[in-house]
Amino acid sequence: MRFNLRVLPFDKRRIVDLPSSAYDGVLATLGYELRSREVPIQLSGARLKHAPAFPDQHVGSYTENRQTLQEAGYEIAPVEDDDFLGLVEAFIGGCRDLAADRLPRIAIDISSMSRGRIAAIVEGLTSDERGTPLVADLLYAPATFDAPASADTPILSVEPVSPWLAGWWDDLDQPLAAVIGVGYELEHASSAIDRLEPEDTYVFVPHGDEAGYAAEVQRANQGLLAASRDIQQVADYDVTEAYQTFQSIDTLVRRLRSEHRVAVVPLGPKIFAACAALVCSLHYPGAQFIRVSAGERREPIIRRANGTVCGLRLITGAVDDSAVYHADLAIPGRLDAADDASVALGAKFGGRQDSNSAPDSSSRSTSHGSRS
Amino acid sequence: MTDKSTAAVYGSYNARSVLPQKVAQTFVPPEQFWRIVPQSNAIITGPRGSGKTTLLKMLTTAALEHWEHGRAEEARQAVGYTGVFVPADRSWAGQLERTSRPLDEDLRAELGRGAFALHVLRALAGAALYRSVDAENPRGHQKLRSLTREAQEAMARDVSRPWGLPGAVGSFESLRWALSEELAHLGRLARRASRRANAADELLAHPALDIDVIDAAGLLIDRINDMDDDEGHVWMLLIDEIEFLPRSAREPLLEGMRGRDPRIMQKVSLAPYTEIETASDYALGGWSGHDFEYIELTFSDKEDGYDFSRELLEQELVDRNLTPDVDDFLAGPGYFEQPPGSDAYVEGSRNRTAIAELAKKDVSFRAWLDKHGIAVDRIDQLGPTERAATLRKAMPIILLRDEFLAAGGRRRSRKHPPVYTGSASVFAICENNPRLLKALMQRLVDRRDDETGKLGVGAQAETVADACNTYYRHLRAIEIADSGLPDEFLPRALVHTLGQFFEGNVLGESFTSEPALSVTVSAEELERLHPALDHILNALLNYGALVPLGTPEEQRFGLSHMFAPKYRLPLRRGRGVSLRTALGIRPTPRRMEHQPSLPGTEEGERT
What we know:
A: alpha/beta; B: five-stranded parallel β-sheet; four-stranded mixed β-sheet
């Protein structure tokens, strides 16, 4: 058997255009941001719905979100971070049960999740080597721009987010390379560099639709970005083009890991964290996902979605070697096409590319396999 | 829009990932290097950037062979052992800790010990490999000139089984690769065990978990020493940043300093204020000078480090194809320094002018002069003893007050004054810390005028101030445990409070020639202020932001001179006050049996 992961684009669209009942299960978050409810409410036609709350920070829009999500049928009981992976695995299992002989399809709204929870999502999706294939859409709703809090938050920890994504070095003489996605968290990127002391640093700078955001990111990282001597490369990425971002990080890590230990530090937009977690999972043991934590001292920002959603589609699961590519290609890259496909497990292994799949999407995909 | 962000303070200057050969190309030995060289166990401590890694790397055969310094041959002669550099860092420690966190305590300890044992053996195989290649090089250090391919193959084969390496291993290089593979295998098992408790047995069965690193290393050392006809030859484990090792890995190594195998000795580096626990407390106990040398990489008197700093910066200038004259490049020795052979108080001198100017605008200074019987217009008539006793000691404060006080004692805003320029100022501001010196010098060289190639005083002052502000802002990077510590005790806030307190002592209303510029702390006081404050102070000391002063028993600390430009402080130390006083915290009043009510808080008045 061979564990397979195929990554496809999930193109940007309006949240209201998401089909309400396309998924067997939806996993979201009950948080304090207004946007934590915007995608899950649109997807409330799913049968299995979880939006676990964080045990703390019940501030901002939390109470309103709680009521709305509860009314939409979401399971919202708070879950500790340590228990979140278990919930993800149970959720995936539940969706498989619901799908019975169909290919299970799940949506996971990462917009309001912590990086630790995003890492757990990726672990849940990429570690179940015995699981049957499933389609998972990692959805991200970019926020409208709000100026960041100016609080002088200290860094509490800079450490691998989980054992699954910690990497494992077999040559400590190799230099460390840091791949940092910056955000407008003031000085967090340079603090992470200061702590990790990498030999080489590669920086990803986000830009998106929101006016003001790019300028704020530049301002928060101006010193770092100006220190050209310490930085090997600076690359922009579009937060609404998750697939390209994933490919860029993947390509860079692939290039670096032959001669470096690679630490990926995903600050900034959550979609970068999802891409980074996927890349670190795929390149284990040569890459580690580093979480920079400011703990509860960080001031909550009440963000709301700008009305659009984008992300990645993952097709994951253990399949026969002989069938791996057929299985991949049988899944259309676009959600509307997937709605029509209703691919049955028995049929997909022997199938060829579905005629309904959109050529632009299916041609943009990355396949990764690893021996279990 | 202001630039609030900062670049990495230390960025490119960590020697950890640099090949020893490369480290040797620019190595300038501080005086402590010659205390580290002898064949003895040693613990080397120093704050961040003080050169611990560099010094350890310089004891490897690869580095010694490539060192071109005037005293390099002396070092090559003195190092009669084989250095085995074993790196450790935060990234590795983090992944080991995070991977093993879900495991039970015993398995966690065994995994840490086993993983590090494989890294040590891998480094040992690497050192043996280096000694075996290019054996006829006349500058070769500790080369194994009579080692045949067959003998090497036999040695590798002999140790591979007890080292738990499956498959055929036929050379030192092959040993290294096989150890890397076993490390990777161990990692996969550990990761699996972290997810599934029932996978723990598989991890537990990995042979690395049974390896005794000293015994295992001895197997290869036996064979190499025998072949080389040098049975007592010492292999020196050079273990960097031992605080990052899990306790289970650290203990057998530190206890190896007892001389369990006389052919295996150790020099380890350690952050100075680290809580290291060992089962017996032996290795870090009171045996310094007996079983190991304890070597600190700081200079208790800043002037003691100036020769080293000067040579280091000369090397930087040479590397940039510039004339290696630091004083010339930095426009002289500095504002606080007196050119040798000149009269510091002669009419028209900087000191004389500052005294006269300050006397005009600072009432408290005039009072101080009167009290000491000093007339401004007759300073040059004072004898050398009077000058030494009064003026010389007060001069840095006089210069600062003259620079930063306006008429009436109001403070002047001086964005980039020339006070903190010059070679001695740069050495002092960087605390003779090589990494800070190199980083600052690189910035300074970058700021030269493109046409003249000269560095102006204004550009120098601005660059120094920027570097110091960067250093200050990076205090945010100091890792702290979130134990409910009040915001005012966070590292940066603590430094800021101390800096402002010291600044007030220097530039405050009353002139004093001996302002308080340091704090004393006691365990009892720390506990009363906050139980986690001890941890914060240690972190600041390890970072180099606080500097220990006096004897260890005094528990007296000053701010790093890196903060001098920010808080307008002299580049010297001063007397101490209690930390509580410096933080402006009043003693806790005794609880009264019947607490008086505050006005307006009687029950009936509540709204």
